[in-house]
Amino acid sequence: MAFFKKKTILLFSFLLFVVSFVFSQNYFRFEADYSIKEKSTVDDPMLNMGRLYFDLHNRSIVYDITFPEHEIIVMNDTAIYKIRNNQVTEVITAPNFIDFSIFSLILNGQLSYFGLKNTIYKLTNVEKDNGMVITTWEPPEKFKDIKGKMLLSQIDKKLNGLISFDNEDNIISKQFFKDYQVINGLEIPTTITQFLYTGMDEKIKLTTYKNIKINNMQNEEYYNYSIPDY
Amino acid sequence: MQIFLNSKNLYIKMKNLFITILVLSSILSLRTKAGNAGLFYLNAQQIEKEFKQLTELENYLVFHHASLNALIQTHNPILNKTGLENSNQTVPLRMMFEYKDVDWGSFAWGFCCWPVGCLIVPFNKNKDDNEKLSFFYGMLSFYTISTIYQISVLIKAGNSISTY
Q1: What tens digit of pLDDT does each residue of A92-138 get?
Q2: Do the chains contact at A67 and B36, CB–CB below 8 Å?
Q3: CA geometry: angle at B141 spanning B136 and B143, to 5°?
């Protein structure tokens, strides 16, 4: 009798494992038409449009820019490549920001806290006001000379805004995530408004995403973009 | 009786202190909450207004599949509205000054009478980049031709001196 009980438990566990494996979604690709509009108190206005491709496994974001000029920009863990007419025109060394790109956060299901749970920042305060849950995230003591706190607000458990401060408690940026769409079960903000405050300059950046595709198995040439020799 | 009065006074003092602390802490907490919530206020209408012209351009580009180069070549007024006409984005394209872009009137001012032409073309706010460039090309052409002419005169003069 005990043998049958053990067998039943084992069989049930196995079935549970199989069911969870089959039904669990694995998101690894993000694709969308994008537009970035920028206005600043100092610089000229800017419009940049095209389609972007992100593959979580390849850890690269490929921007196929159509406006103002046709150009491809590839961002990976170490650098940003500008490619024109299949020739690398510029290489900029950049720190690893793929993990904190919005696409990576969306696919990993970490957007609601902007991935802050997996960083050195610690949650120090939670407050509720005006339908928002506002959380305060602070860096460890030893980093407080160089990093400031962050305020994160959520509406209906979705990321609404993120405010970054410098070490003297001045706001250096504000980001707002609006117009969420549910695509393949993922909640994706399609409008991101960013305010950047640097010295005397105030920059407003409006990013929109349209025609979003998740886990698209076409357009391999972009998802596995091979950078030309340079 | 005295003890009773003292304890009553103490009770009233404690009560007042408790109420004061309660009121102050409530005010303080309310102020903190209001401050942080206010930071997340976004004036969506203002943003929409701010980017209205760039959004118009975006919609135009999506609909017509137009490039910046095509917009500049055709002097599309939508560029003027957005301010992109003078933007850094268009600088490499604006530098592509071609033969068909020459404004011959401005060229003539530069070639024939640049001191007067200066007031009419480059210092005139109503003249566009092509007209100003045409003026300078006219001026440059005048000096190039006059330099060649002067050199040839000098060579001729030198030759005639040597024959004597």
Answers
A1: 988 777 888 999 999 999 999 999 999 999 999 999 988 999 999 99
A2: no
A3: 95
Residue A94 lies in a domain: yes
Question: B75 vs chain A: nearest CA distance in angstroms?
Answer: 15
Say if A57 falls within a structural domain: yes
* Interface predicted TM-score (ipTM) of this complex, two decimals: 0.80
pLDDT computed for residue B36 by the predictor:
86
Domain spans, chain B:
2-40, 42-96, 99-164
- How does the average pLDDT of chain A come out, rounded? 89
Does residue B11 surpass a pLDDT of 80? Answer: no
- The CATH number linked to A101 is 2.50.20.10
Interval A165-194 mean pLDDT: 95
Count CB neighbours of B149 within 10 A: 10
The CA-atom distances, in angstroms, between A108 and each of A63, A98, A103 are 21, 12, 8
Q: Is A171 exposed, middle or buried (0-12, 13-18, 19+ CB in 10 A)?
A: middle
pLDDT tens column, A70-99: 899 999 988 999 999 889 999 998 877 788
How many residues can be counted in chain A? 230
What is the nearest CA distance from B26 to chain A, expressed in angstroms?
14
Distance of CA A89 to the CA centre of its chain: 26
Whole-number Cα distances in Å, A167 to A115, A195, B49, B151: 21, 18, 33, 68
- Tell whether B90 lies on the interface with A, counting CB pairs under 8 A: yes
pLDDT tens figures, B94-128: 445 566 678 888 899 999 988 888 888 888 777 77
User: What is the pLDDT at residue B87?
Assistant: 56
Q: What average pLDDT does the segment B4-32 reach?
A: 64
Q: How near does any CA of chain A get to the CA of B128, in Å?
A: 18
**Count of structural domains within chain A:** 1
Inform me whether the C-beta atom of residue A49 falls under 8 Å from chain B C-beta atoms: yes
Burial string for B115-138 (b: 16+ CB within 10 Å, else e) reads eebeeebbeeeebeebbbbbbebb
A211 touches chain B (CB under 8 A): no
CB A205 within 8 A of CB A43: no
Q: How far apart are CA A30 and CA A24, in angstroms?
A: 18
Inter-chain residue contact A69 with B33, CB threshold 8 Å: no
